[in-house]
Amino acid sequence: MDMLASLLHITPAVLWMVLKVVIVFGGVMSLAAIFTWVERRGSAMIQDRIGPNRAALFGKIRIIGLAQILADGIKMFFKEDLVPTDSNRNLFWLAPFLAFVPALLGFAVIPFGKSFSSGGATYHLSVLDPGNGMGMLYPLAIGGMAVYGVLVAAWSSNNKWSILGGMRASAAMVSYEIGMSLAVVSIFMTTGGYDPSEIISSQGGTFLGVLPNWNIFHQPLGFIVFFTCMFAETNRLPFDFAEGESEIVAGFNTEFGSMKFSLMALAEYSHMMTASALIATLYFGGWQVPFVQNPPVLLSVACFVLKLLFFAWVFVWIRWTLPRFRYDQLMALGWKRMLPLAMVNLVFHAWRMSQGH
Amino acid sequence: MAVVVKRAELTWLDRTYVWPVLQGMSITFGHFIRNLFTPTAKRYTVQYPEMKSVIPDGYRGLHELKRFEDGAIKCVACFMCQEACPARCISIEAEEFSDLNITQGFEEKRPATFKIDMLRCIYCGMCEEACPKDAIWLRKDYELAAYDRLSMQYGKWDLMNTYDEVDGKERISQDPTPSVPRRTIAL
Amino acid sequence: MFITFALITLLGAIGMLLQKNVIVAGLCMVVAFFGVAGLFVLLANPVAAALQIIVYTGAIMVLVLFVIMMLNSHEEEKAQASHPVQKWVSLALVVAAAIGAVNLVVASPGLKALGIKGAEMPQAMTLQKVGTLLFADHVLGFEVAGLLLLAAMIGAVALTKRNL
């Protein structure tokens, strides 16, 4: 590390930072791209179909259809970039970025492996080092920003379907944010800290001797609330109110084509990655390996990635299992079920803590 | 009489919504696993260019103009199919092909051209029904595609040679000289 | 860093004032909020920055934009020609307010404390500290604010729902 840094004429800290950014964003981006394919193949298998398995490199190497990602990318690049006549051009151009950037930024505080020290310096495996004071508030804040992508995309295309979709989605996102935040707050409370690294380190060890000491076993109710809210936040089925073929065409991205559309789609999948990373961190012990005290760094990273992939897969799995909600059902669920449940969870844990647990 | 529809009573477990969701997820996961461990060739989907489904009898595909054993066309250019065709895609021009008198047992008409516009044809099979000589059949070939409109205009020889490979017949591009009477006509 | 965030804030605010399109003005305001959040981070108070983004940009501005979109005011209003006197009076007021603000900042004890060498650097604010401050030192103010918000909430519900 030091040698490489001196070769590049930068300090090891800067080099490490750059490396982390490249690893995290490259990783999340490529995972998001791969999950566009996983979604299609997975849904096909769930529905007894076959899915995209034909795209091949050089017309020969099929690699179970993974080349489909490349093919889609190339197709998207070479499509005509249409802008509707009466749209607000600047905002129309800005909207995909507004959707895409928050989806990636949320990942910055999440530690994807155990910190290690070498040569007298400690290296943390998260883009923002722990103790930055933002902690878990940061992904919540950035998650709130994701609304703007949908809202701006919807409004700037000057299309009735778009604006209906955008309004529905942003209303849902704002409503579910409250339940989600309350669920997270009870985690803060029981942990006694709000930094992701603290939350993860408090989840080491075992619970009742047989289970890993994960927060899901302490707060199953909070987990259900948070998990449900994550679906609403990422705008995925059964809560995908930004879109809806039967009622509002493609919703907020009706007017978007070519790379703009693919950025929108990638934003959804990167958001999914961030959401599953959050779920893994908050409720499933992040990089903690079950029943292993002080796991090696690589094992911890592998464990985190495994959890991340599992929850991303659960997002896909649930999408192809459940039918969509109706809009009023969604709102009723958000305000009349999830919010009170989160409150109950919060009060219950406050009471338990006051009893000295 | 009013019919009382009995509504399914939901137990408290169903009302939580979480348990039914888990049940549904187990079903979909079962399908996923089953498909994951089934080779692609054995799944329900017929993978078209490599696999082809069995075409049932009575399927109405590409036409064939039947011929006799010596290769002469069975069609007598009676224009029945052209009249019967609801899409008006058949156009026939008749010709006399023999100097022999009809009293000698020769049918003297045959199509000089027999064109079917496959872009207009709706594969209804009316021509087959109308034909008095069983000279036009609709058979099982459904892979009809071309890069231009002209190649979808099937002529007499195209139609006669349609199924030569399937039936093991030779390709012909010329009417054979008639030698024997096709059938005896009672006068 | 300070200059960057201050510029972002100022440009956002100016953009908000100058934009004739209401939605774009709202988005400019979001930019200004971001600049303020950055300034909070520079003031060693990341909690306030996060809350600024969560509460203001994440909730309040979204609702404001929501209402604007609902009311469907897509048309840009034409500015009325202002009277010259109005211009001069407003300019004078702005200058006076600016001078007053700068004076206030320069005269503040915090700034003087910064000038003293070897003075204690402010510690980074954490959520724990905020909690202790709210529930130990300023508990009365906190409760009063809570009560006020509750009253406002009940009022809002009573206004919108005629037949309870």
Describe the structure.
The complex is a heterotrimer of chains A (357), B (187) and C (164). Chain A has helices at 2-7, 12-46, 67-77, 89-105, 137-156, 160-191, 196-201, 215-218, 220-233, 245-248, 258-283, 297-319, 327-354, and strands at residues 116-118, 121-123, 206-207, 211-212. Chain A has 357 residues and is mostly helical. Chain A has one domain (81-354). In chain A, the strands form 2 sheets. Chain A has a two-stranded antiparallel ribbon with strand order 1-2. A two-stranded antiparallel sheet of chain A has the order 3-4. Chain A starts with a helix and ends with a helix. In chain B, 22% of the residues lie in helices and 13% in strands. The model of chain B has no long low-confidence stretch (mean pLDDT 82). Chain B has helices spanning 12-15, 18-36, 80-84, 126-130, 156-160, 164-167, and strands spanning 63-65, 90-96, 109-117, 136-138, 153-154. The relative contact order of chain B is 0.17. The longest helix of chain B has 19 residues, at 18-36. Chain B has 6 helices and 5 strands. Chain B has a 3-stranded antiparallel sheet with strand order 2-3-5. With 164 residues, chain C is mainly alpha-helical. Among the domains of chain C are: 1-74, Up-down Bundle (Four Helix Bundle (Hemerythrin (Met), subunit A)); 126-164. Chain C has 7 helices and no strands. In chain C, helix 6 packs across helix 7 (139-160). The A-B interface holds A 42, 44-50, 53, 224, 317-318, 320-322 and B 18, 21, 24-25, 27-29, 31-32, 35-36, 40, 43-45, 47.
Secondary structure layout plus pairing:
The complex is a heterotrimer of chains A (357), B (187) and C (164).
Chain A: H1 2-7, H2 12-46, H3 67-77, H4 89-105, E1 116-118, E2 121-123, H5 137-156, H6 160-191, H7 196-201, E3 206-207, E4 211-212, H8 215-218, H9 220-233, H10 245-248, H11 258-283, H12 297-319, H13 327-354
Antiparallel strand pairs in A: 1-2, 3-4
Helix pairs in contact in A: 2-11, 2-12, 3-11, 4-5, 4-11, 5-6, 6-9, 6-13, 9-11, 9-13, 11-12
Chain B: H1 12-15, H2 18-36, E1 63-65, H3 80-84, E2 90-96, E3 109-117, H4 126-130, E4 136-138, E5 153-154, H5 156-160, H6 164-167
Antiparallel strand pairs in B: 1-4, 2-3, 3-5
Chain C: H1 2-18, H2 22-42, H3 46-71, H4 84-107, H5 109-115, H6 127-137, H7 139-160
